[in-house]
Design brief:
It contains 2 helices and no strands. It is mostly helical.
């Protein structure tokens, strides 16, 4: 007996909203860096910082997702072991408490 996954699938509307908000925030920040009244070195530094922040955010999101998937698999294996032990246990057999 397996339990269905309690993780709900992401709706299309939520995915689109998340993608649009990411795109708008990234575009606003890029435009802000371009329009900033500073020299090219400062702009370059901010642009490189932006690239690092975006890539680390994606990496962190992937690590969190991978950890959740591992925990889900581990929980399923543990539940299967417990189910097997319960099925093998005969409470009506003499000598068992």
């Amino acid at each position: 007996m397996t339990t269905p996954s309690i993780q709900r699938p992401t709706t299309t509307a939520f995915f689109v909203q998340a993608a649009i908000s990411f795109g708008l925030s990234l575009a606003a920040l890029v435009i802000g860096i371009i329009k900033l009244p500073v020299g090219q070195w400062e702009r370059g530094f901010l642009a490189i910082g932006l690239v690092f922040v975006v890539s680390s955010a994606f990496t962190l999101a992937k690590c969190v997702r991978d950890r959740q998937e591992v925990e889900e698999v581990t929980n399923r294996v543990d539940k299967a072991r417990i189910d097997k032990l319960l099925i093998e246990q005969d409470v009506f057999k003499p000598g068992q408490v």
